[in-house]
Every structure is written in structure tokens, then in C-alpha cells.
Amino acid sequence: MQSQLDLIFKHFPDLSAKQQEQFIALNDLYLHWNSQINVMSRKDTENFYERHVLHSLGIAKIQAFLPESQILDVGTGGGFPGIPLAILFPESEFTLVDSIGKKIKVVSEVAAALDLKNVIPINDRVENVKGQFDFIVSRAVTQMPEFLRWVKKKVKSESKHELRNGILYLKGGDLIEEMSGIQRYYKFHDLYRIFPYDFFQTKKVVYLH
Length: 209
Prior knowledge:
Elements: H1 2-11, H2 17-36, H3 42-46, H4 48-62, E1 70-74, H5 82-88, E2 93-98, H6 101-113, E3 119-123, E4 135-139, H7 144-150, E5 166-172, H8 176-179, E6 186-190, E7 203-208
Parallel strand pairs: 1-2, 1-4, 2-3, 4-5
Antiparallel strand pairs: 5-7, 6-7
Helix pairs in contact: 1-4, 4-5
């Protein structure tokens, strides 16, 4: 597991001592909670840092979040991509939403164990979440047209980042057909160019505003 953990430190060399400790602690926390509430497959637990943590942090390579930014993670499951991003950006606020209560329980417990005061767990459908956000993040919870319906009017109009406020969506495979009917600006970012490992060959961050 150490070699996988080293991937995090290699690609994010400026972590504070506290952030390093939090990333180190993640594996045992998720092993513990996954044994009680299944939030990932066994194969994924064996490749935890690559397939969950580094994958989530791919979003940060496309856009770093400024202090006081508000980020919404839709369909977070056990906390991905929200928890790794919350560790990386401790001065940004992350609202992690999932309609399945036991998954949000894992999010709450992991955030508490890591002392992540910038994580707000919500057990609800995203359509019911109030407020607007600088960015909406997610990891392949549904097809993009459906996702856009879920998050309609939840992006703030005033932008302060390099990228205009919008959606940063982790997806794999061939997305041309899925995106063909989208009448908004979007761009694919190939994660394999950033993380040159087999798992990332088909993985992308889709940026859309």
C-alpha cells in the first residue's frame, strides 16, 4: 500500500504534515467502514489510493479551489471525490450529498475522524439541496443529460477561479455519444496525461459550464 500512497505524495508534493497524515489515515478508515457498510469493491480496496484517492484528486489538476469556495459533490457514495478534495483544500467548503443514508454515515464518520471541519454531509436527493456553488463535482453517478437536470440552477453566476464556475465530472470510456446532445460548452481532460498509469487510460475530467 505504501507504493500507492507514494503516488499521492509524488503528484501532490506540497502537502502539509497534517494533510499527509490525513491521507495516510484514509486507508484504514475506509477498510474499517467498508467491512461494515459496503461502499467499494474488494478489488478497489486493494488499489484504494490509485482508484479512489488519486482519481478524485484528478479534479484538482484541472482546477485548484480558492479559499472560501463552495463545492457540491453529488452522489458522493462513501465520500469520493469530496473527501480527498476536502483534505487538499482545507479552506474550501465541501457539501457531500447522497440519497443513501448508510453511505453518508461513512462520510460523516470519516470526516469526523480526520477532523475535516470543511465537510458538510447531507442525506438527501441533490434536487432538494438549497443554495448555489462555485463548482459541482461528481464521479460517474449518471449520464450527463440527467445530471444536468439534477443540478439545474445550482451554480453561482459570479466566477473567481481561472475556469468559469461549472461542473467537473469524473468519467471513463467513450463520451462522444453521451455528450452529443449537450448544448453547453464542455471540454474533456484526459487524466492519463497527468497520471500515466493503466487505470487512467480511459479516465477523464469533463469540464462543463
